[in-house]
Design a protein that fits this description.
Largest sheet: 3 strands, antiparallel
Radius of gyration: 43 Å
Number of strands: 3
Order of helices and strands: HHHHHHEEE
Strand content: 15-25%
Number of helices: 6
Mean pLDDT: 74
Strand order of the largest sheet: 1-2-3
Low-confidence stretches: 20-30, 32-56
Structural class: alpha+beta
Length: 260
């Protein structure tokens, strides 16, 4: 508007032009700023003149998208900046971590085997203490029958190799008549190998005397399973990580009072 128009009052203000799609939120295209700054020293941000829909999609980025971009950039930057120190630390920590994880798995498996052979010993003692057998006649089960028909199926169902059971050492058990009782040879020669002792005193202390004043007679069954497992071992010499094998004898014992 010039001075003559202002004095005459004949100028009619025109409607303000709407901003273009490329001029929003205070951002102007570089083409709109060429009259202010030389092209050689222009520091304006180039903004493509796109349609309104595309522009809204570009500036309407959600906070989740922004966070995702920041995380991705941080991961890429951390990976590029990863030096020899981090690699050396990982090489030292990973074997210890694997040894810890494998140890948990191995001891969990060992506890499963122990609980299984303990249950097998209890079921075997209960079967051997019976005075009669309902499915095999009037005579009680022999030690071999207890091993093959009672203890063996329990171990097999738990995927335990019953052929690995070893002959248990004969515990100090006295019969109710006072004589020492050894393991039944039929049980130690069967598969799996078990120690069956019938008509023995169950409540003897370390001195060979009844703990409750009167003798309690019953049947005792013992099992021994050699459990072998391996764990990674870390050393200061090459190859620095080796396999170490360990062996434990898992022992289970159960005793049942004999009833008439």
């Amino acid at each position: 508007m010039n001075l003559l128009d202002r004095l005459s009052g004949t100028h009619t203000p025109s409607a303000k032009a709407a901003p273009s799609a490329g001029v929003m939120a205070g951002l102007k295209p570089c083409a709109a700023q060429k009259h202010k700054l030389p092209s050689a020293s222009s520091n304006c941000r180039s903004l493509p003149l796109v349609g309104m829909t595309s522009f809204n999609n570009a500036v309407g980025m959600t906070s989740v998208d922004l966070v995702g971009q920041v995380v991705r950039r941080g991961l890429r930057r951390g990976w590029r900046e990863c030096g020899a120190a981090e690699i050396a630390e990982a090489a030292f920590v990973f074997p210890l971590l694997f040894m810890f994880i494998f140890g948990i798995l191995q001891f969990g498996r060992m506890y499963l085997v122990y609980s299984t052979i303990q249950r097998a010993a209890m079921e075997g003692a209960r079967a051997a203490a019976g005075s009669t057998c309902a499915t095999c006649g009037t005579a009680p089960l022999t030690a071999a029958q207890v091993a093959t028909t009672v203890v063996g199926p329990i171990l097999q169902n738990a995927h335990i190799d019953q052929t690995l059971l070893t002959v248990p050492a004969t515990p100090s058990r006295n019969s109710c008549t006072g004589a020492a009782v050894a393991c039944d040879a039929l049980g130690t020669g069967a598969t799996p190998k078990i120690c069956v002792q019938r008509n023995v005193v169950l409540n003897l202390d370390s001195g060979g005397l009844p703990t409750s004043g009167s003798s309690v007679c019953g049947t005792s069954v013992r099992l021994v399973y050699p459990y072998n497992f391996s764990l990674p071992s870390v050393s200061t010499v090459a190859p620095y990580v080796s396999r170490q094998t360990y062996a434990l004898n898992l022992k289970a014992q159960a005793q049942v009072k004999e009833e008439n």
